[in-house]
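Annex B. Sample input.
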Amino acid sequence: MARVVKWLRRNADGVLVLLIAGAVAVLSLLGMFQNIFTPDAISQAILLVLALLAVVILRDRQTTAKALEEAGAVQQINGSEVATVHAEARRGTDLWLFKGGTGTYLRAVTLPECVREARAERRPLRVQAEIIDPSNEPLCKLYSRYRQSLSTRPDGTGERWTLERTRKESYATILAACWYRQQFNFLTIEVGLSQVMSTFRWDLSHSRVIMTQEDSKSPSLVFPEGRPHYRAYHRELVSSFKQSRAVDLERADHVLLDDEPTVDQAREAFAALGIALPKAYTDRDVADIVSKARHARDPYR
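Annex B, continued. Sample output.
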């Protein structure tokens, strides 16, 4: 009974139209109240029904428009569409905020493409990246186990996720930030090291926020600029970054990095940043970090 009452309240205008139209039609057919239901009275009743029907149609259009507007506030995309949406987000933007795991995709695709476009258009670019702290071994171990739980097979880089890979990927993102900072003077880049692992990845440009999951098979969400979700996630990314451990990239400016940085240059850069590499790292390990920094592979291909 409660559901019936609720339905009647929600559709009161439509029910009223049906009742009036039905009553007039039935009484006219029966020939009752002929003195009351003159042709003029019936015409007026018809006009009343049409007016009420117009109100119902207008309300329905308004409801539909509102539903479409709300639906436009968020878009769901799947695996193959993510790269296309990322490319659209990069187009013409001078801002990119990232929060995620180790920044592998950021380093492989987003950062080089954003820098390339900014350089071609001779405009400044600001990048903010929050990644997991490579010196936090328990955190990196937790992240690698999470990635292994999603898939034990190699990703687009040809590698499986392990503790050492996780740490090296984060170190490589830091080194890549130093390298791009030296290569493009109009780049303002900040790196923050998080002590918390997230299963989501956020990318924000001037046109949209893209929220993806580490599992490429899972659906992703896109929030256009100007919508409440965009502003909310923008605030979240700024607030989260402030809570991370900031890397003062300026401290490594005196360490000139070659187009292909050497092992010694990489070690010197990390030392200048106050980020100690594990003592067990050999030159081969550092060379692997350099390779990931300069020639990162798209993990989602």
